Amino acid sequence: MAELRWHPLTRDWVMVASHRQDRPQMPEDFCPFCPDKSDKVPKGYAVHKYDNDFPALSTSPPVPDGVGGGLFKVGPSYGKCEIILYSPDHHATLPQLSVPHVASLVDLWAERHAELARDPLIKYVFIFENRGEVVGVTMPHPHGQIYGYPFVPKKIELELASCAAHHDETGRCLICDLAAAEVADGRRLIFGNASFVTYLPFFSEYPYGVYIASKGHVGSIDRFGPGERLDLAEAIRSTVGMYDALFGKPFPYMMCMHQSPVNVSGAPELHFHVEFFPPMRSEAKQKFNASSETGVWAHCNPTAPEEKAVELREAYGRFLAGGG
Predict the structure, then answer these.
(1) pLDDT tens sequence across 225-254
(2) What is the pLDDT of residues 29-66, one digit of tens each?
(3) Confidence of residue 26 (pLDDT cuts 50, 70, 90)
(4) What are residue 192's DSSP bridge partners?
(5) E-state strands within the chain
(6) 281 to 258, 265, 286, 288, 319: CA distances (angstroms)
(7) What are phi and psi of 312, to 5 degrees?
(8) How far is CA 152 from the centre of its chain?
(9) How far apart are CA 52 and CA 237, in angstroms?
(10) Which of 139, 219, 310, 320 can pair with 269 through a Cys bridge, CB separation 3.0 to 4.6 Å?
């Protein structure tokens, strides 16, 4: 079964993809993303797009099962699920890659965003990475993913509505104003470069949940010029390097790129930014989303962002001192 089911209480779509339960458990000595292990990836690639073998969305979706009707609204699971391979090296981490190499990854992200946006049925292109076993990753080869949804996800809808309300009140962009306020305040600022700023938001839901925001008002990754793409590569690489330096080991996270919807008439522009959701509140303690967070979306951060920003700045310094 692969279909979309409408959630009438949240007014959002839920992807139902029961076929993904049939994904095989890979042998320890086999990786489909390694050039010497699989014939599905080219020899000697630097970065590479790989179509997901078990996609939740596809451009040829099956007809939804006959379980809908009345309040039970269903739709075809149309869309695209792609895997983005960061390196042919099975054991590489993102901070170990050079800035030019990560820039080639940014170029591939931008290329795929532009390509998926050409499909008029796709309404939002989501670029993301899950890292670490604690967030459910079973394939350690360095990679991320891209989903092309046939709808605009609820969180993006909420961000767009908030940005539109702020613009109506002030005539300015909310993401621009947030980044500028964090830079001016300084207590939660981590680092920046010519095109991007990395900070731990005043309202962070996660102890180490930093944002990377573009200084220029740009709506999507494919609209960045060469210099901005190089700066984005440096910002992402340094952020992950900072995380790894925090406790001296690879740090788990979910990296989510937020940008404007596509193929939606009249939709406002969403200022490009990257949100990180790391599931750890200390080296050995996980932050769980329990009843408050999950049941009513009322988040509780058990730490003070101002204190955690100090830890992150110190970790960033260690990353740079180690040759980052």
Answers:
(1) 999 999 999 999 999 999 999 999 999 999
(2) 788 899 987 788 998 899 999 999 889 999 999 988 87
(3) low
(4) 197
(5) 2-7, 12-17, 48-51, 74-76, 80-85, 124-131, 143-149, 189-192, 196-199, 211-214, 253-258, 273-277
(6) 24, 41, 6, 9, 20
(7) -70, -40
(8) 15
(9) 25
(10) 219
Q: Cα 189 to the chain's mean position, in Å?
A: 20
Q: What tokens does 222 get?
A: 């494919």
Of 48, 113, 141, 143, which one is the catalytic site residue?
143
Torsion of CA 193, 197, 199, 204, to 10 degrees: -160
CA distance 93 to 172: 38
User: What is the token pair recorded at 322?
Assistant: 């180690």
Q: What is the pTM of this model?
A: 0.95
CA atoms within 13 A on the CB side of 97: 28
CA 93 – CA 297 distance, rounded (Å):
32
**Strand-strand pairing, 74-76 and 48-51:** unpaired
User: Alpha-carbon distance 314 to 210, whole Å?
Assistant: 14
- Best CA proximity match to 315, nearest among 285, 286, 278, 289: 278
Q: How far apart are CA 221 and CA 302, in angstroms?
A: 33
Distances (CA, A) of 236 to 50, 67, 95, 195, 309: 21, 44, 9, 12, 17
Q: Are 42 and 34 spatial neighbours (Cβ–Cβ below 8 Å)?
A: no
For range 295-316, the mean pLDDT: 96
pLDDT of residue 27: 61
